[in-house]
Amino acid sequence: MGAQYYGADSENGDRIDDPSEDTLFMMISDLNDSDNTFVVVQPDEDDPVWFTSVAVPRLPRTANQAGQRLLKQGLDAALCL
User: Fold this and answer.
1) Chunked in runs of 10, what are the mean pLDDT values of the chain (81 residues)?
2) Which backbone phi and psi does 69 adopt, to 5 degrees?
3) 27 near 8, Cβ under 8 Å?
4) Which of 13, 67, 71, 78 would you call most buried, defined as having the most Cβ atoms within 10 angstroms of its Cβ?
5) Rounded Cα–Cα distance for residues 9 and 37 (Å)
């Protein structure tokens, strides 16, 4: 299922048509955990049958924030020190 042209889109709005390997490496290197957490690559066509993505998880910055997030979701949180 190859395609002649691909597009790469990142969460921060960058769009690269037919990216090279170096460009994909740059886009992935620019990922962070605040406002640019993913890159999606897919064929440049109306209804693509596949895509691939690279994502950086949004992790809490401290154990306390992790516990607060779990409690807000209604889950029991235990912190082992």
Assistant:
1) 82 94 93 89 90 81 58 46 35
2) -65, -45
3) yes
4) 67
5) 11
